[in-house]
Structures are given as structure tokens and as C-alpha cells.
Amino acid sequence: MPAASSREHSASAGRLGSGPAPGPHDAEVLMRVQGLSLHAGGRELQRDLSFDVRAGEVLAICGASGCGKSTLLRHMIGLQTPQTGRVTWVAGGEPRDVHGDDPPRREIGVAFQAGALWSSMTVGENVMLPLELYADLDEAQREQQARFKLALAGLPDPATFDAEPASLSGGMRKRAAIARALVLDPPLLCLDEPSAGLDPLTSARLDDLLLRLKHEVGTAIVLVTHELDSLFAVADRLLFLDVDAGTATALGPPAELRDHGPAAVREFLTRGRPPAAHPSEETA
Length: 284
Ligand SMILES: Nc1ncnc2c1ncn2[C@@H]1O[C@H](COP(=O)(O)OP(=O)(O)O)[C@@H](O)[C@H]1O
Ligand SMILES: [Mg+2]
Prior knowledge:
single chain, Rossmann fold, 6-stranded mixed sheet, 4-stranded antiparallel sheet, 10 helices, 10 strands, binds adenosine-5'-diphosphate, binds magnesium ion
């Protein structure tokens, strides 16, 4: 896929709407990123990022360590303001700048690497917190909603609600953080390396949860991940941030990019072992 593919894809997505009924891959656009550059410590990490996040899709953000994936997520949720470019929430009504006066706080659920649970609160209190801030519910309704989201995230044991975060396993804490991110029923969930530090089985179960959210709840997920298994299992599209080029060099379905993407992307998606171009020659 050519280097300009990210722009081509987002441009074509922008024209959708007048054609036939949307399928899973040409759905409504939730968020539009346009001409975004990322800076950290006075250095430009990435420039000219343009892509859409579509309703119900899992969009994986990949690239070498330090290329700017977490920085991109922080810009997408409005935690960091761009020097160049913009991020716009375009679903449901007037477009809203993520960094403007009326940011889409309720529309985006976030579970970050470091942004784990508050250790001073129980799991249930953690999950209810966004409801206290943004929803008009009484205590009993908040608890009911929080327990429902914990069960949805794979923590159905009623005792978990009153547990201290420190008493949970790493995988359970990730699930609780995802329950908290889901408690306001956001159409978009942003996850930064959710399987970091988890064993392969726990990590695979987390993939199952993401697939359930996508298929049963219809939540779109932006997922930063290094895990190839996870990527191929759950991602509809992959955005590759190239650390050397300083911009996105590919956007498309992971399997397509593994077979036909730019060299750096193929290498990333095959752990540096792309299939031999002529396997028959090797065995001859
Ligand atoms: N607040 C900051 N000040 C200075 N440098 C930063 C800051 N945040 C991130 N960086 C640097 O920016 C680069 C990209 O960081 P990050 O977005 O976390 O990358 P990734 O998530 O892709 O590993 C890294 O080299 C990191 O050290
Ligand atoms: Mg990161």
C-alpha cells in the first residue's frame, strides 16, 4: 500500500453517506483527525496525520516504541492540544472540536496504561466515578449501572464491586478499568496497550472481551497494541506510525498490510520475518 494511503482512506470515508446502506467497513464516522502533528519535549514525533475513526470498528495504532502512539491517543481524547491540525467529533449533530469548549467527554471512554484505578477507592467506586461526574442518576442507579458494566467486562462476581483494586489480578484490574471506561456507554473506547504485562492467556481473554464489545455492544475501539495475535484477532484496520518517516505510512486491514503493505509495516507485522518472496526456491 502506498505511503499516502492514510489520506486516501480518510478522504474516501469522508465521501460516504450517499451510497448504499453502510456495511461494517463504511459506517458512520465518529471522529476525524486532520493534519495533526505530534510534539513531545520540543521534538516533532509525527506530522500530517489524517484519518477517521468509524462507528463500530476496531482501529489499531501501531509503530515502534516511542513513535508517538500514546501521544496520539492523548490528542484524540483532548488531553493534549495540537500545535498543528485538529481532532473533531463528528457523530450526532454539529461537529465538535475535541480541544474546544464542548469536548466529547461522555462520548469517549478511556483506559490508559498508567491511568489505572484509584487505589483509595473500591472497584465499584472507581467504576461509578464517571456517573457521578457526568450522569444524573441516584446512588442505587449508579451502583446498578456499575455492576452491570463490571459483569459486561467479565467481572460478574458481586464481591468484586467492594474489593480494593490492589486485591485484583492484573487482568482483573484491566477489566475493571474497561468497565469504568464503558460506564457512560460511549460510542468510542480508547485503550493504550491493554494487554501490557498480562500473560498470553489473560491477554487472549481480553481480546475476546474487545470482540464482544464490538459485536454485541457496537463500541468502536481505538487500540494501541504491540501484540500481533491481538491485532489480527480484533483489528479491522491498522494505522502504522513510522518512526523514521515521522508520519503514518499505512492504514488498512492488518492482513492486507502484512501481505501488501510498505516494507516497514510488513516487517512489523511479521516480527521481522516476512515470508520469503519465493518459498519454493528455499526448498528446491
Ligand atoms: N511529556 C513529555 N516530555 C518529553 N518527552 C516526551 C513526553 N511525552 C512523551 N515524550 C517522548 O515522546 C516520544 C513518544 O512517546 P509516546 O507517545 O509515549 O510513544 P509510544 O506510545 O509510541 O511508545 C518518546 O520518545 C517519549 O520519550
Ligand atoms: Mg505508549
